[in-house]
C-alpha cells in the first residue's frame, strides 16, 4: 500500500536524523500541494470554490455571488472560477453541495426550494461540468449542504474538548439556520441520510400548531420562527429572545431523538447573532431538554460560513480513498 501511494505521489519519504547504528529511519508525510480535491458550493447567498489537500488544508478558494436562476449558469460560473487554479495540480475527486433534497447515490436533485430547482440530474450535470475542465472520470459526489457541513465539522472542525472521549464526536448534528432551517447528521463516522434520503428536515418539526404559516403548507414549523429573513424583519433583543426560546424547543427534540455528542449551530442567522444567540439558547434549554443533555453540548460552528464548502471537500477526499483503496 505504501509503495503504491509513493508511486502515485500521494505520500513522500522524509529522512529522519540518524539515531545510533543501523539503517536510517524514514518518515512518511502526505503530499500537500499537487494532489487536491475540488469542492463546489451552490447556495442562496453565495457560491464558492475550494481546492483542498489530503490534510484538509485549503490551497485555493474563490467566493462568488449568489446562484443564478438556472443550474447550467451556476455550473458555468463555477467552471470559470476553477479553471485558473488547475495548472500543475492533480484533482483526485470533486464534490458539490446544494441546499436541497437529493439522493447522493444516484445524484438526483428532488427539490431545492430556495433556489427554485426541482427534478434535476445533478450528479450527471456536475460530471459534465468537470469534463469541461478536463476532469472527466474522476470520482464525484453530490450532497446536501447541511450534511456536507456536518461532515466537515466532524472531520475537520475540532469539536472535541481536551481529554474528551473522541467517540462522542462520532455522533454530531449541524443545524443550519438561514433562509430555511435544516440539519446534517453524522452517525458513526458517516452522514445519515434516512430511508428516503430526507433525514435532517428539522425545519418542518411543528413547534406551535396555530403558529405562523410555513412554506411547506403547515403552520408553526420551526422554520417559520427561525428563518434569517424573520430576524432581518425586526432585529432586536425581543426578537432574539423569542427565537432563542423556539430554538431551545427545537434543540430539545433533536437531542432527545438523536442523542448527539454535539449540536453545532451555523448559517446566516448564527453569523448575525453569534454568541448572544448561543448564550440565550443555552439559558433556556434546561426548560425543555432531558436532564441527561447539557447546554454545553450546543456550540457555534468553528468553521463558520466555510463548513459546507470544507465538508464537501472532505467528502470528496473520502470518496476518493473509498473508491481507490478500500478494496486493496
From TrEMBL:
What EC number(s) has UniProt assigned to this enzyme? Answer: 2.7.1.2
The record's section on InterPro entries has: ATPase_NBD (IPR043129), ROK (IPR000600), ROK_cs (IPR049874)
Tell me the keywords, alphabetical order.
Answer: Kinase, Transferase
SUPFAM superfamilies xref list: Actin-like ATPase domain
Single GO term (MF): glucokinase activity
Tell me any Pfam family this protein matches.
ROK
Membership in a protein family:
Belongs to the ROK (NagC/XylR) family.
State the name under which the record lists this protein: Glucokinase
Amino acid at each position: 500500500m505504501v509503495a503504491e501511494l509513493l508511486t502515485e505521489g500521494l505520500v513522500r519519504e522524509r529522512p529522519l536524523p540518524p539515531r545510533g547504528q543501523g539503517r536510517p529511519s524514514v518518515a512518511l508525510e502526505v503530499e500537500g500541494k499537487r494532489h487536491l480535491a475540488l469542492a463546489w458550493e451552490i447556495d442562496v447567498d453565495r457560491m464558492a470554490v475550494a481546492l483542498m489537500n489530503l490534510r484538509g488544508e485549503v490551497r485555493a478558494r474563490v467566493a462568488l455571488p449568489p446562484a443564478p436562476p438556472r443550474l447550467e449558469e451556476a455550473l458555468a460560473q463555477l467552471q470559470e472560477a476553477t479553471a485558473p487554479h488547475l495548472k500543475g495540480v492533480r484533482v483526485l475527486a470533486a464534490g458539490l453541495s446544494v441546499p436541497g433534497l437529493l439522493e447522493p447515490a444516484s445524484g438526483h436533485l428532488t427539490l431545492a426550494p430556495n433556489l427554485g430547482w426541482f427534478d434535476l440530474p445533478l450528479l450527471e450535470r456536475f460530471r459534465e461540468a468537470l469534463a469541461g475542465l478536463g476532469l472527466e472520470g474522476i470520482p464525484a459526489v453530490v450532497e446536501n449542504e447541511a450534511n456536507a457541513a456536518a461532515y466537515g465539522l466532524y472531520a475537520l472542525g475540532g469539536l472535541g474538548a481536551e481529554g474528551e472521549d473522541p467517540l462522542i464526536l462520532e455522533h454530531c448534528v449541524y443545524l443550519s439556520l438561514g433562509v430555511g432551517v435544516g440539519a446534517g447528521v453524522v452517525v458513526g463516522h458517516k452522514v445519515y441520510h434516512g430511508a428516503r434520503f430526507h433525514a435532517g428536515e428539522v425545519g418542518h418539526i411543528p413547534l406551535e400548531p396555530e403558529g405562523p404559516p410555513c412554506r411547506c403548507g403547515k403552520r408553526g414549523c420551526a422554520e417559520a420562527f427561525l428563518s434569517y429573513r424573520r430576524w432581518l424583519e425586526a432585529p432586536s433583543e425581543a426578537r432574539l429572545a423569542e427565537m432563542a426560546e423556539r430554538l431551545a424547543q427545537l434543540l430539545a427534540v433533536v437531542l432527545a431523538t438523536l442523542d448527539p455528542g454535539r449540536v453545532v449551530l451555523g448559517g446566516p442567522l448564527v453569523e448575525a447573532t453569534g454568541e448572544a444567540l448561543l448564550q440565550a439558547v443555552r439559558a433556556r434549554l434546561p426548560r425543555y431538554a432531558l436532564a441527561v443533555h447539557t447546554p454545553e453540548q450546543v456550540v457555534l460552528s468553528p468553521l463558520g460560513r466555510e463548513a459546507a464548502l470544507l465538508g464537501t471537500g472532505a467528502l470528496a477526499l473520502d470518496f476518493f480513498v473509498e473508491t481507490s483503496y478500500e478494496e486493496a
